[in-house]
Every structure is written in C-alpha cells, then in structure tokens.
Amino acid sequence: VLFTLLLGLWAISALDKARKRRTPGAVVKGAATAAVACLLGAVGMVDYGAKGVMTVIAFYLFRDFPMAWAAQLAAMTALNVVWFKGWCLSLTLAGHPFEFPVQGFAVLALVPIWLYNGKKGPGGRWAQYAAYAFYPLHQLVLYLLFFWLR
Asked: Which end of the chain has less neighbouring CB within 10 Å, N or C?
C-alpha cells in the first residue's frame, strides 16, 4: 500500500505544481507524471496497480468540486466496479444472473470518508493502539481461519 500511496503522492505533487503554475508546459508535465505513476503502479504490481494510483489522483482532483461526493462516487464506481476484473459474486436477481466484483465493496469506504470532519475523534492512547493493531490482527485471524478450514 505504501508504494501505491507514494506513486499517488508523486502524481498529485506534479498535478499540484501544474495547477499553481497554469502554463501549458506545467500541465503537460503534470499529466505525463501522473500517467507514468499509473504505469509504474501497473508494471511494479503495487497494491491495486494503476487503479490504486488513479484512486489517489481522483481524490486529489475532485476534492474541491462543488459536488465532490458525486465525482468521488463516480470515480470509485468506475475504478472498483466497472473496470475491475477480479473475483466476482455471482447472484441471481429476479431470475437474471448478475456478477458483482468483490472489489466493488470498496465504494462503501466513501461513507466514513465523507463523514470525517477533519477533527481528531474521541479516545486516547488505547484507541490509537487498537486502531494500529486491528489490521495485522484481523489478517492473522483470517489466515488462521483459512488454514483451519482448508
């Protein structure tokens, strides 16, 4: 994930310089840097590949839109549902077969992002360390379940 975020940071840094300078050369350089960052994400096989880098770029580009939530929703849907080719849930709705990519559930991450008000939440050190411990602990539990059920 860190390499994905690093490539995304490189891309948005170049795009931010282009936004501030507003010269044709800066815009071309910013867009080319973003494209190279996406390409490196795909070739370097970082987490989520080019789509992960594009997600970072989309959040940067759409942050100041009047209806930023709609643009973010459209970008997340395009990146995680429409263009994503991976594991799918096969469902039958009203007699019609339907496939939904598991990655599409990433769109639900928008809810806590939209609800965040920019302020630190309640809790002290225990909440901080619980948040840090959650990811590795839940990965360990999932691995043990996979190993045990296999």
From this structure: C
